[in-house]
Structures are given as structure tokens and as C-alpha cells.
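User: I'm writing a short report section on ligand binding and want a predicted complex to refer to. Could you take this sequence and zinc ion and write out the structure as C-alpha cells? A short remark afterwards would be nice.
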Amino acid sequence: MDSDDNLDYYDSDYENQYSDDSDDTANLYDDEEDDSAVNPDDNSKSVKTFTVLQEDDINKRQEDQISHASLILSIPEVSASKLLYYYKWNVSQLHDEWFADEEKVRTAVGLPSDAVSISGTDELITCGICFDPFPIEEFHQMVCGHWYCKLCWKVYITTSITDGPGCLLLRCPEPSCKVAVCRDMVEELVAEEEWGKYRRYYLRSYVEESKKIKWCPMPGCENAIELELGNDLFDVACLCSGTFCWNCGQDAHRPVHCDTVAKWVSKNSSEAENTNWILAHSKPCPKCKRSIEKNHGCMHMTCTPPCNFQFCWLCQGDWREHNEKTGGFYSCNKYEVAKSKGLLDEVEKVREMAENSLNRYTHYYERWVANHKSRDKAIADLNALETGILQNLRDKTLESEGQLKFIKEAWEQIIECRRVLKWTYAYGYYIPEDEQVKKQLFEYIQGEAEAQLEKLHNQAEKELNNFLEKDEADFGVFRQKLVGLTAVSHSYFTKLVAFFETQKW
Amino acid sequence: MVDFSRVQKELQECNKDVKISGISVKPKADSLSHLIGTIPGPVDSPYEGGTFLIDIVLLDGYPFEPPKMKFLTKVWHPNISSQSGAICLDILKDQWSPALTLKTALVSIQALLSAPEPDDPQDAVVAQQYLRDYQTFVGTARYWTEAFAKTSSHGMDEKVQRLVEMGFPEALTRSTLEVVGGDETLALEKLCSN
Ligand SMILES: [Zn+2]
Ligand SMILES: [Zn+2]
Ligand SMILES: [Zn+2]
Ligand SMILES: [Zn+2]
Ligand SMILES: [Zn+2]
Ligand SMILES: [Zn+2]
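Assistant: Sure. The C-alpha cells for the complex follow:
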């Protein structure tokens, strides 16, 4: 992409969008004045792009389609059920082909229109499988007139069900005969357990043959997600509370593209040996060197007394330098190549390059991991809030549940922002070296968003605790700050996401 | 459990017309789950005149599971491994049906000898030769038939005699030679390891 485009975009759209709500945000941000009407919930106008299907929903859809097809094609439901499976639930193709040449469809699927009629006989008939002679009552009659005793049928169908979903296409054992074994026959002949398996395969086929429905990949979850056609927003949320990318099955990663995610995930596993240390839970304080455990979600660390040094978990720099009030931008998100140590010979150059390349990767990976963990922590915190803390708070403030909703909304905003931020680090790693303008713009937007999120996260974690512990704190002020920071974070992250929507890669 | 009552009936049925078809099935030992099938090489093929022995193992699910079959007699054919005798044939895999029998399976194998399917090969070397140099393929297949598939008729007595002279009982020698497709060295190996 041409870098001029970026600048244009930045100058016009971005600025306009930015200034729309910057009046509100500026006030709130300065911790002064009273609350303005900022709705942190304007997420809600986004359209629903998917549907969660539970087992009953899938079953109902299948049965509806079966009875509909049965009506339209004037055939029994068992036949309709077979046809729909054969046509992979493509109703229009089934209709087209059926009305074009019914006999052809019947032959292909194995549903002959006329049955071979056999009048009762007193003679014994030899079963085509066990070769034993039996009276006619011992047989299960198929429309094709091939004779197999009930026991052989049972074993035949049971064996096929045990072998897998191929049982849904089972036909008469006679190799030259293509007559289909329909579900009424399966239900009549096999044991309860196999019948259950057969029905499961049938149910699953509805999802597995569909181009727009996929199973939820969360362990133990049996729901499926249907994506609205023509939709390229792949992030979906299942009823099991799992969120994932419908397209590639990874954790939800909007706004970053599936290709980037795939590259990143494989990079991470190939670099695992070099990056184990990043998964550590504690780091030495940069000032007093005591080991400090990270037990908050935000990156703002405070060393234990008497040191009390405030530093950044990610870069271990002084936290005060992460504040735009001191002048510069939030820049902890940027990777700076270490200055070369003067004249180097070839070997040293190669070593330095390798070192730089690992350092660069480490920079992004560490931030990716930190945000991932921070999000998990936020999810746990929200959970704790809903299962207890909120009640304490109600007792203390005498506020109604609705009036305390803003706390929950703040946490939901944090969880979503951590997710987006995490994936923007995978994206950042892959920005080509020669796209400096784009890189700078991206890092600027990312840095701004990250700085706001740290404030919001800090407020939600520590200030809430302060409020619960200290009696003199003013709940009105707490609310005002949290609502404001939620809105500001939302706005900054909307801009961050919007940046991606202008990118082709 | 193998349905032995059905296997019994199959053997009777198959061996009834062995004079016409040339195809027979016999138990390998006293168990009905391990059998030896015999098929004559089809006329107008490089296998004509040969007699091919097939090792047949019946799994517990038989006849609802396919029988396991492989050539004991060495054979040069695109769909049969020249090393192991493994056969690539759909009815021995996913196209098996309990309405088929050991006899129908052996008939299909015989048909496969007449009409190889080099596009779905078991032995890539043979299949390549079949496609690129058909004349050489026919020559090699004929030579293998002469060398390995005719020994049971020609020179069998001499082989039996030689082995008996080494001190092995005649009946055992004959059955051993039959099992290994007339290969004297293999038979000796087997006899010595007993
Ligand atoms: Zn039967
Ligand atoms: Zn039939
Ligand atoms: Zn789920
Ligand atoms: Zn994806
Ligand atoms: Zn310290
Ligand atoms: Zn930092």
C-alpha cells in the first residue's frame, strides 16, 4: 500500500473521527468536571453476524427440512431424510434434480419407486449372508427383494455403524443392488446404543456438510455456529462463553487477519525454547532487584515497601515515563533496535543481526503473552465481581444493580481491549521494515490505545479495591472516573480497529 | 466370532465345482479361520498355466468384515506386491459385502490378473513398467509365472524327493511346499524351523 494513503487517512478521517468525542474524553481524562453523557455501550449497534445452534436447534432444522421435502416431493419422510443427506442438505439442488429427472435421482440414491412384491411362501428361504434356511417371518424384506435374515441384517447394520458415519450411505448387501438402507429400518433392527450413534452421525452431517456452519472448537462444547452469508467478520462467541475465529478456529483475533495469526502461532511454537522465560510470573524490581510477583492485570507495577518503585512490567522502565503528561508519547509498545557498538567485523555483524532479530521477536511476543494473561486475569476478576464483590458493593453503597452496571461494563471493555491489543502485537511484528510511515502511524495509534487501557485497568483493579477498603473514598468520583475511562478506551480501541480496516495485509 | 457354519458351507459349495472353475479353498490347518485358496492363472494372460496360492485369514467379524487375502505365490502384477503378495482390490477393503464369498473374492482376484489396474497400483515398480514398457512387463510376468507358479505341477515330485532325502516326512514336505507356493528354499526353511 502507498504510504501517502495512510497520511491522507490519518489527516482526514482519523482526525475527524477522533475529534467527534474528544471533547468528552478530554474532560473525563483530566479527572475534572462532572460526567458527560458518554455511552460506553455503543458496541451494541454492531449487527449480529452469526447464530449459535444447539443440538435441539439442529435437530429441529433437520426435521423441518425433512417434512418440507416430504411434502414438496410427495415422498415418505424416511426417503426425504435419505435424499437430504445425499444432497448434503442442499435443498434447491435436490429440488432441481428431482423435478428434472426423478428416476435418475431415485436410482442414484437407492430409493426405487416400485417394490418387488413377494407373496407369502411356506418354503424355507436361504439367507444370502449366513446361508441358513429360515421361514419367511425370519426375514426383513427390502423393496429390492434380496433376502437376508433379521439377525444378519442387524449385524450388517451394526458393523457399519461401528465403522463410522459411512453407515448413513449404507445399501443392500447385494453388491449389484444399490437400494438404500433407510433410517426406519435401522431403528427397527439395531440396539438402542447403535441407533443413538446413527442419529448422532445424521445430526452431525448437517453441520459438517454445511459451508456456513462449524462446530465450536471449545473442549466439551457441542454447539455449532452458523455464520451469516457474505460476512467477513469471523469472530464469534458461543453460548459456552468461548470466543473464536469462525474462519481459522484460533482464539478470536479481529482485527488481525487469519494469515497473520497462522504465521504468528507457528513462529511462537518454533521459538518456544527461546521464550520460555517470558511466561514467568515474577521479575526483579529494576531498582532494588527484589523479585516482584505480577498479581494484577495491568502493566503498572509497584514494588513492595520501602522501595515502592513504580515500573512497567513490559519494559521495566520507570512508570512515570509512560505518562504523556511528562511530554513524550507512550512508547513502550515500540521496538527500538539496539545501537550498534561501533565498527564490527563480519562475524560480529552476523551475531548482532541474529541477536536483534531474536530481540525484536521477543519484544512482540512478550507483549502478546502479557496481554493474553492480562485478559485471562480480567475474565477471572469479572467473574469474582459477579459472584461476590458486586454484592458487597451494593451493601456498602446502597446502589441498585442497574446503577452498578458500569463496573461490569468497564471489565468487559478491558477484556475486549486486551484481546485486540494482544493481536495487534502479532500484526506489529509482521509490518515490513520498509513501511516506516505505516509502522509509525500504527505504533502511535496502538500506543495511545494501550496507555488508555492501562489507566482503565488500573482504575478498575486498584481503585475499586481502595474504595472497598477505605471508608472515606467517594463513590461518585470513582464512578465518574471509571465510566469516563471506559468510554475513552472504547474510543481509542475503535480507532485502533479502524486502522486495520484500511489495511490490505 | 467368525461364522464357521457359513465358512463350512462356503467350502462345500466352492469345492463342488472345482473341476470347472479350478478355484478351491482348503483349511490351512485344523482351524477354519486360516485357509489357503488356489486360483489358476487366466487364459490369454501372462499368468496362463500357473497355479497361484492365496493365503486367507478370517477375522472375527467375518463375513461382515472382509477376509484378509494375499498371494503366497510370487507374482509380477501392478496391483500385487512383488515383495509381500499384498493385493490392492476394492472388494477386499471398503467394497466388501457379506453377500460376497471367499469364492467370489478369489474370482475377482483372478479377474484382476486378467485386467490389471495400473492407475491404482500396489507395486509402483511393476505399474510403471506396465505403463511404459508393456512388452517387458509381459515378459517378466511370464517368467515369474514359469519360475514360481508352475513349480507345483512341474518338478514338484523332484523337490519332494530331494527334501525327503534330507530326512523330512513326505506328507509334511508336500503340504509345506504347497503352503510356500512350491519354493524349495522357503519350504526347507520352514521345515527346519518346525
Ligand atoms: Zn442370515
Ligand atoms: Zn437389494
Ligand atoms: Zn461452545
Ligand atoms: Zn482467523
Ligand atoms: Zn523495588
Ligand atoms: Zn513499558
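A remark for your report: The interface with chain A takes residues 3, 5-6, 9-10, 61, 63-65, 91, 95, 97-100 of chain B (CB under 8 Å). The pocket of zinc ion (ligand 1) is lined by residues A 127, 129-130, 132, 148-149, 151-152 (CB under 6 Å).
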